[in-house]
Amino acid sequence: MVASHPNGPVADFCAALRDLQVASGISRSSLAREIHYGRSQLYDILDGRIRRPPEWDRLVEPLLRTCLRGKPDVDRLVADWRTRYEVLLRVHDELTRRTSRNPEVAEGRITGMRTSEAMVEHAAHLWPRLTEHPFVRAVGAGHLTDAEFRRWMVNDYYFNVEYQRFIASLAGSAPDDAITEVLATALSDTRLGLTQIRQLAQRFAVDVGEEPAPATVALAAYLQAQLWRGYAPSVTGLYACEQVYFHAWSAVRPQADRSTPYWPLVDAWSNPTYEIWLSSLGRLVDATTATPEMLRTFEWVIRLELLFLDALHNGAGW
Predict the structure, then answer these.
(1) 14: phi then psi, degrees, rounded to nearest 5
(2) CATH code at 30?
(3) 15 CB-near residues (< 8 Å, 6+ apart)
(4) HSE (CB half, 13 Å, CA atoms) of 278?
(5) Residues sharing a CB contact under 8 Å with residue 201, sequence separation 6 or more, in sequence order
(6) How far apart, in whole angstroms, are the C-alpha atoms of residue 224 and residue 170?
(7) In terms of residue numbers, what domain contains 127?
(8) Of the candidates 131, 77, 120, which has an alpha carbon nearest to the alpha carbon of residue 256?
(9) pTM of the model
(10) Alpha carbons 230 and 228: distance in angstroms, whole number
C-alpha cells in the first residue's frame, strides 16, 4: 500500500527527495553547502514542511545531480524526476483550485477518511489474496514455468493494449485540462511496459496475437464500461488497476530474483517512481467523493485482476 503523507503530494515528493539524500550517504549539511542552499530551508524541504513544490532550478535539479553523482545515465534519471516534478505541479495546481471551491475536500477528509484511503480499506480483505497469489510469488522467485510465462506475455499484451485505449479515453473525458495532463502520464511506456513485453515476447518466440483468457477480456471490458458511467467511476477503475500492480509487485520486490528476464517488469511496477505516480493519482481520486458505486467498482476491478492472475497460473480458458 502506498503510504501518502497527510500533507499531500508536495510532502510525498519531498519524502522521495529525502530518501534519495539518505541513500546517497551525503549529510544534509554537506548537501546544503554543495548546492549553495540555506541549511534550514533544505531541512524544511526534506522534512516536508512546505506547502508549495520546491523550485526545480534552484533546489531539485542540483540536489538530484549531487545525490546521483557517479550513477550511470544520470541525465536519464534526472529526466525521470523532471517528469515526476511536472506531474506534481499539475496535481498541486488542480487540487488547490478544487479545494478552494470545496471545503470538504480542502480538509482532505471525506467521512473521516480520504477517498483513496477508503477504497484501499474497503478492499482490505483482498490484498492478502493478491500478494500471496501463487503466480505473483512464482514471478518473484523466478520459478515461472514456460507455459506460465507465455500466458503472461499473451494476456498482459492484450490487456495493456486495451488499457492504453481506456486511459486515453479517460484522459480525453477528464473534467479539465490539468487532470487530462496528469492522466496522460499513465500512457508513458515506462508505466505500461508494452515495449518490454514485446521485446520479451520476441526474445522467447511468444506470439502475443494468441487468444487471451476470458478473465483478461472481462477485465478490459469492465474498465471500458466505466467510461460510459462517467469520470469518477473511470478514474476509480484506473486507480484500482494501479494499486493492484503496486501491491503485487512490491510484495515480492525485496526477495525477487533480479536475474530473470522479467525482473524489469517487476521493477517498473514497484519502484519509487511508480509509487510517486500512484500517490499523485490517489490525490485526483481524493478530489472525488467515495460513493458505494465507486467502492464497488474498486473492489470488482481487484476481483477481476485476481481472476486474471488465476488464468496466468492455471491456464483457465474459454
Answers:
(1) -60, -40
(2) 1.10.260
(3) 5, 48
(4) 26
(5) 153, 154, 157, 207, 208
(6) 9
(7) 115-314
(8) 131
(9) 0.71
(10) 6
Identity at 10, one-letter amino acid code = V
Residue whose grid cell is 476481483: 303
- What are the cell numbers at 9? 503530494
| Structural Rg of the chain based on CA atoms | 20
Rounded distance between C-alpha atoms, residue 208 and residue 199, angstroms: 11
Angle, vertex CA 265, rays to CA 262 and CA 271, nearest 5: 130
In terms of Cα–Cα distance, which of 149, 80, 94 is closest to 312?
149
Cell of 7: 500533507
Last residue of a domain, one of 106, 137, 152: 106
Cell of 37: 542552499
Q: What is the pLDDT of residues 41-93, one digit of tens each?
A: 899 899 888 888 899 988 999 999 999 998 888 898 898 888 888 877 877 77
Last residue of a domain, one of 61, 82, 106: 106
Q: d(Cα 148, Cα 41) in Å, to the nearest integer?
A: 52
Residue 132 lies inside a defined structural domain of this protein: yes
Half-sphere exposure of 161 (CA within 13 A, CB side): 12
Does residue 142 come out as left (phi exceeding 0), alpha (psi in the -120 to 50 range) or beta? Answer: left
pLDDT tens readout for residues 146-194: 999 999 999 999 999 999 999 999 988 888 777 887 787 777 765 667 8
How far is 167 from 185, CA to CA, in rounded Å?
10
Grid cell in block for residue 43: 531541512
d(CA 85, CA 88): 5
Count CA within 13 A, CB hemisphere, residue 147.
5
Same domain, 177 and 222: yes
Apex 88 CA angle, 84 and 264, nearest 5:
25
Closest alpha carbon to 233 in 169, 148, 190, 291:
291
